[in-house]
Write a structure and sequence with these properties.
Layout: H1 2-23, H2 28-44, H3 48-55, H4 57-60, H5 63-81, H6 85-111
Helix pairs in contact: 2-5, 5-6
């Protein structure tokens, strides 16, 4: 049943984004940024953890999960080192995922074949 709820919640997150694209003048970049900010807000008010426990990867893989990761990193760093943690905590928490995405993108670019856009 965990797979079903992950699929349903992740799908609803995607449906909401698609509706924003179809029925508003928001650009995809603004919608994606909104998802990250939404994850930060849900984390700050304590609603993200219950959602992630219920939906699993359906809530933690999309950009909401990235926003939650940034918020948790900042909160932890502020507890440990104070105000400078606001600037370093998010990047420290997300460093592994960011590095992995860069490495895999580089590998894909080296293995893949580019095509002309025309």
């Amino acid at each position: 049943m965990n797979y079903v709820w992950a699929f349903v919640v992740g799908g609803l997150i995607c449906v909401f984004g698609q509706l924003l694209i179809d029925y508003t003048k928001l650009t995809p970049a603004r919608i994606l940024t909104g998802y990250v900010v939404g994850g930060v807000i849900l984390s700050a008010v304590g609603l993200y953890d219950p959602l992630a426990e219920f939906a699993g990867a359906g809530a933690s893989v999309p950009l909401l999960g990235f926003g939650h990761l940034l918020a948790q990193g900042v909160m932890k760093a502020v507890d440990e080192i104070g105000l400078p943690g606001v600037f370093t905590g998010g990047l420290t928490a997300a460093a592994g995922g960011i590095t992995a995405s860069l490495v895999f993108a580089l590998l894909a670019a080296l293995v893949g074949k580019s095509k002309d856009q025309n």
